[in-house]
Amino acid sequence: MVSTGKKFMAGLAGLLLCCLTMMNCYAMESYPEEIEIDVLADLYEGVVFDHGLHVMMTEGCAVCHHHTTGTPVVDSYCAKCHADEEPMASVSCQDCHSSEPVTAGNVRGKDALLFHDDKPDLKAAYHLSCLGCHQEMGAPVGCQDCHARTETGDAFFHSGQFAPAESAGSSGH
Amino acid sequence: MSKITRRKFLAGSMAGGAAIAMAPTKKAFGANLGGFPDGMGVLVDMTRCVGCRSCEAACNKEQNLPDPDKSFADYSVFDEIKHGEKRRPTEKAYTVVNRYEPEGSEPVYRKIQCNHCNEPACLTSCFVNAYTKTPEGAVIYNDKVCVGCRNCMIACPFSIPAYSYSSAFNPIIKKCIFCYDTRLKNGQMPACVEACPQQVMVFGKRKELIKIAHDRIRRSPDKYDDQLYGENEVGGTGWLYLSGVPFQEAGFNVSLPNEPIINNVKDFLAIVPMVLAIWPALFTGFHLLATKGKSHGHGDDHSHDGQEEH
Amino acid sequence: MKKLAENGIKPHDAQLKPDGRKFSLMEKLLLGLTLDQYVQQVIRNKFNWLLALIFAVGIPLIIYRFIFGLGVVTHSSYDYPWGLFLGFGLFCMVPLSASGFMLGTTVEIFGRHDFEPIERLALLNGLLGYFFAVVYLLVDLGQPWRLAYPMVYSFGPAAVLFLVGWHVATYLSVQVAEVSTAFFEWIGFRRGYEFIRKGTIGLTVSGIILSTLHQGALGALFVYAPGKVHPLWYSASFQWIHFFVSSIPAGLSMVICVSTVVIYTMKWRCDQRFIDSLDRITISLAKGASMGLFTYLFIKFLAVAHDNEWAYLATGWGAWWLFEIFFGVVLALIVLGIGIHHKSVALCRLGALITVLGILLNRLNTALITFNWNLYQEIPHIFEVIIAITIFAIYIATYRFILNRLPILYQFKNRAEA
């Protein structure tokens, strides 16, 4: 189980990152052009996320930010409660999504808000949100299309320099 | 903990052949007890799986399995067909992900590993009791007592256990043990669950997972096939599956009974003490009836002429 | 041996030589022949050459299997964990060896001493069949040196295999005891013989119990695999009865087959009592077998009706099932029936052969052919086939070795004085 201290530190780190990169994100129509998402970097490098490009391509902030930016809510399920929500203080993914892996117990047990009881953890929030849309839009979906594998990652996946002799050189799609 | 009692009960009545003891167990035999109340499980939501094989890599590392034949970043394994079948767990891989291409749908990926049944067929078929269902929900295996009869491989309805045939002096069953030794015992989730980037899997108490799964189906009825695979199959499994396509299109065996496998065998097990109790008297009686008035001292000289008595 | 008999040399068949001295053990082993005569007759027999050829290939393979593991002689299939060694060795050998308890029951329990001339052959057939089923098992087990674990070290008493293990082990001991009377006679250990003889009824009854249960248990083993065994060969309620009931004609027919081989190839070893009564006994055994077969036929269809599986009969697997039934059961019944009616020993023997083949087909169907009917068909590794044949050849050689020596087919002449 995660100690509260560790959680606190993670929260603090998240908050710091948010302050550094999205200082002015509360103001409408002002947002960071580029965000480096690297809190969870381990097997893969961090992702340099072209926020500006994605803002231009999507129909609204709420596609990714649910109801926290004050723009009309896209997901009809969220809209049941949050249709007319004002911009909120927390808009970064990690403000709500835990960087610790989620289990059924800690989600259902600790979140008093009934409809948030199946909230994915941070890693899943990123991937589900990004990859889900990329699949629909025909955007790149390969792991290394977004983030390069680290040496640790190569060791983990038995790829690159750690690849088995027979299939050396085969790479991810 | 009624489950333990039942299994022990079965054990007692078999070993002793105590016919009388069978009478009060009739109810217990038919009951489906549903496993340990606080047993853990994993909910697998296949609509989220993208086939990245991170879980396979994590399992390989956690269980110190031999190096794979192909890199875990090599997706050509999805096209591997052996004997007309896709991949299955082996002695070198406790979990594998397969890709299925249902008609009119995007490819779906299915992770296969031991489903950690509530009432495991492998356990009930093992004559040296090498398997244990732990209160935490894992089905673990003791290679120190395994004789290598491989009946568990016959019995497993999901075709999970593999055998290290290549070992001459210590061949053993190789299967997923829910990371029991290294993680589950300490309340931690298995390595594959933690490694998943998409949170395809949620780890938790089985009974909580069932609620979460039905909530997901209820919230997105168009997204999911209206079934939670493993909730009832063969008496319920610790690992539960949600799918966006009908389960048979993702390679699942949808013809499994809801009864635990052992229930099929109970007809036979029930007659065992009966035969032990009834046959001696019955056949000794036949003997007395059949030989009454005839010479008793046969055999000693084998001197009877068959024709005479005929 | 035929040649020797023509020259007036008779095999050892009594405790005492014509001059009143006892035969030594060596002389008994050599059948009362001189070493030269013995070796010559061994070499003259063409069948020995065939055996030698099989052993020359097969025995190194068995050693190879034990040094390098099962992986080198089988396909190491996870989907077909049980191959020929169990599919044939265990599941076929055991029903064909049901003869021991059948004839034991007939003679000792029902007092039908008219079957006595063949009782010992039936008991030996049972003992050797079980013994070699265990040999097959030892070759198949991953860690055969742990064979005794379920007896002494770690118990899984709710498992059907636990029951099979215990019962086969116990029954083997019972059969050893039953056959030991012949052995005690042969070595001339009168007191051991009498001691065992006293316990005959007890041994026979335990034989019936153990046989009922483990013949049935072999069937129940497949009840663990409802999705894997084809529904036509699977019956949760009746599988054990199918296996038990079919073992009755199987065991009886096996005795008819063995006695046929014996009377044609080893007539010199049979005494007049055996030769004179064999035709009558063959027909009687055929009657028993046909009753068993008829019951079996009935309950096979009963199982199909019980699970309402008629629709499967229209499929390819259904045709195969019907073939098994019509060849192995119906045809056998017809041939046996005509044979019994016309008192034709030859037809009874043919019917018995068909019965044996039918049971073999049924067991192989259940264990290998229709197993995993939804998957691919496993064709055993060539080495696996050779090893299975080799063990069967060892079985035949052992069978013959014992029949040649122990008073199974003949009675000791001057036993009373022994």
What descriptive keywords fit this protein?
heterotrimer; A: 173 residues; mainly alpha; two-stranded antiparallel ribbon; 9 helices; 2 strands; disordered C terminus; C: 418 residues; Formate dehydrogenase/DMSO reductase fold; 69% helix
Mind explaining what this structure looks like?
The complex is a heterotrimer of chains A (173), B (310) and C (418). Chain A is mostly helical and 173 residues long. Chain A has helices spanning 4-21, 51-57, 62-65, 76-82, 93-96, 104-110, 122-137, 143-146, 151-157; strands spanning 35-37, 47-49. Chain A is globular. Chain B is an alpha+beta fold. Chain B has helices at residues 2-16, 19-22, 26-30, 54-62, 121-125, 151-155, 191-195, 206-219, 261-291, 306-309; strands at residues 40-45, 96-100, 108-112, 131-133, 139-141, 162-163, 173-174, 201-205, 239-242. In chain B, a hairpin with a 5-residue loop joins strand 4 (131-133) and strand 5 (139-141). The longest helix of chain B has 31 residues, at 261-291. Chain B starts with a helix and ends with a helix. Chain C has 418 residues and is mainly alpha-helical. Chain C has helices at 2-6, 25-29, 35-44, 46-68, 84-87, 93-96, 99-109, 116-140, 149-152, 160-187, 190-198, 200-221, 239-265, 272-306, 316-341, 345-369, 382-405. The model of chain C has no long low-confidence stretch (mean pLDDT 86). The chains are: A mainly alpha (173), B alpha+beta (310), C mainly alpha (418). Chains in contact: A-B, B-C.
Termini gap of chain B: 62 Å
Low-confidence residue ranges of chain B: 1-32, 296-310
| Most extensive interface, chain pair and sizes | B-C, 77 and 82 residues
**Shape label of chain B:** globular
Q: What are the low-pLDDT stretches of chain A, counting only 5+ consecutive residues below 50?
A: 12-27, 167-173
Under the CATH scheme, which class of chain B? Answer: Alpha Beta
The whole-number mean of residue pLDDT values of chain B reads 83
H/E element sequence of chain A:
HEEHHHHHHHH
Estimate percent helicity of chain B.
Answer: 25-40%
Brief summary of the model shown:
With 173 residues, chain A is mainly alpha-helical. Chain A is built from 9 helices and 2 strands. Chain A is globular.
